[in-house]
Amino acid sequence: MLTDEMKMQRKTMCAELLKRYEEEGEEFIQRIVTGDESWVHHYDPESKHQLMEYRHKSSPSPRKFKVVASARKVMLTVFWGFRGNCSYGQEVLKQGNTVNSERYISTLRKLSVRLKRVSPTKHAILHHNNARPHTSRQTEKALHKMNFVVLPHLSSSPDLAPMIFTFSRN
């Protein structure tokens, strides 16, 4: 449940973003990059070639086994912008480990390199949530060095983060 103060903060922030869009136009939207991390099950399905086998026409079809999620999970980090996927990373982390500032900064450096190759003259506008690794002093300094402009994100505002609708099914 949102308090009146939270509603006012959201209204103010959305009005500021709308004003910025009116001033800068489509270029503002095209510079926004959003991203997040999530644990995903690791699948190892057989390829079509692996499923093929030579058999006589009268032989029964081979049984196909249902692919199920393995016990192993991987941390998947995805960033995308106006033109689609910008960068992604997959790291095998032990269950229970999390992304810290150092790991997040390393991911941002890779993203920065990729974005500079695609659009060297434009500075990306980063939209991420308020997770601690995203807002630590160490991360803020690194973002400044990499010339990222960070869009404000209110806490407890998953509806204002497009990642939440696209990245997770639950």
TrEMBL record:
List the Pfam families: Transposase_1
InterPro entries in the cross-refs: RNaseH_sf (IPR036397), Transposase-MT_Hybrid (IPR052709), Transposase_1 (IPR001888)
UniProt xrefs under Gene3D superfamilies: Ribonuclease H-like superfamily/Ribonuclease H
Molecular functions (GO terms): nucleic acid binding
Provide the protein name: Histone-lysine N-methyltransferase SETMAR
Q: Which organism is it from?
A: Elysia marginata
- Cite the source lineage: Eukaryota, Metazoa, Spiralia, Lophotrochozoa, Mollusca
